């Protein structure tokens, strides 16, 4: 059978409850019907037994059976009276002209009377008269059984039948039970339907939401808890997978950056190494070279050696930062003191190029940080401005501070940077003017070191061109 044609569980549950209710009410009606019918039959028998006892008493007093009057026993207007011996022989019957010759010991009411002093039969057809009667028999001490009978007419049938109003009442009770059962099964069915859909969603891998509550009862509370627990478990798995994917992506990104860094280092090392090699080979091959050229080649060797030294130092620093903040030791430092020391150290170089460094950060700025990284951060920013800004002023200013963060700007009044370079300004080995950067001895890692140092201190850094000219770096550091 197609599952779509089957009844739903709430419908089947209602039909089960309906069947159970109808069976229970039907059994009760049947039992009560027979009980009431039996009660009315007993009541009829009791009234006839009174007549039987009266007749037996009159017979014991010597009265003739035909002389006994039954006018006081109403509403029985047509009572059939029979007198039967203990051997089953009928000796008197007021409803027939001639006595039946058939033995009456096989009659049910006679057998009961012989065994229990009295007995009755609700309805039996009489072979003597051709009619049906209600029989009641009583055994006397004189060896006779008096049996009275009432014709089983429509009126007697109505008297013996139970009250049909009882059936109507029980039918109404059954209807009420069905209505209540419908609402009860509908409520339970709603739980089952929701749980079935929940199970199907779980099997299908659909994201579970606990926003739609179950009905407010014990089963609903249990169902809500099940859905809520699973939804949290599912969300925990999603978060775990997201974190795993993020960690995997981060690891892959680190591998990519390391590979890129290796390739870039290899490329950056070729130029100074090749230059040093050419200079040394020239000196070896031309031993009679003039002293001026000899000194020039040695100066080139020294310049490229220093460039190599700077490159290796920057690579070591950025590799250290790539290893993560766990390896970076922090301590309580005064940021203003670090900035002041860097400015003092760079004043001579800046002054030789006609550049003035204005440091407005004079008050104490305590924070948790790594002194060498903070120093490298401001060294690179100032060196970058000295080498490439083309301006004559570098300003360091405290923009904002509170208990959680410090915001500082480092700006110059030079030529600034074209907007097309802004998105890649902090990339490793990215140079705006490659020839000019190499000529200035730059490694291409300065701003990348600055960004990583800021991030390791829980901060951010942005760069923008100043309207009046120059470039401004806004640095936010966590305290």
TrEMBL record:
Its main location: membrane. The keyword Kinase applies. Residues 264-479 form the Histidine kinase domain. It catalyses: ATP + protein L-histidine = ADP + protein N-phospho-L-histidine. It is a multi-pass membrane protein. InterPro entries: BphY/WalK/GraS-like, HATPase_C_sf, HATPase_dom, His_kinase_dom, HisK_dim/P_dom, HisK_dim/P_sf, Sig_transdc_His_kin-like_C. Its EC number is 2.7.13.3. It is found in: Cell membrane. CDD domains: HATPase (cd00075), HisKA (cd00082). This is histidine kinase.
